[in-house]
């Protein structure tokens, strides 16, 4: 299923594209882009 990327702040930042999730890790780069850094690996799903 897809999950919405959580906003980093409440300062009116536009929402990022939905993150595809395979049940273990996110398939999308949106969380990495949102964090402003290139992470070593995929983030775990909630």
Order of helices and strands: EEH
Biggest β-sheet description: 2 strands, antiparallel
Give unreliable regions as ranges: 12-18
The percentage helix is 10-25%
- The percent range for strand residues is 5-15%
Rg computed from alpha carbons, rounded to a whole number of angstroms: 10 Å
Strands ordered across the widest β-sheet: 1-2
Shape: globular
Distance separating the two termini: 11 Å
How many distinct helices? Answer: 1
- Overall average residue pLDDT: 54
Number of strands: 2
How would you characterize the overall build of this protein?
This protein is low in regular secondary structure. The chain has a domain at 17-46. The protein is built from one helix and two strands, in the order E-E-H. The protein has one helix at residues 30-35; strands spanning 2-3, 19-20. A two-stranded antiparallel ribbon has the order 1-2. The radius of gyration is 10 Å and the shape is globular. The protein starts with a strand and ends in an 11-residue tail after the last helix. Residues 12-18 have low confidence and may be disordered.
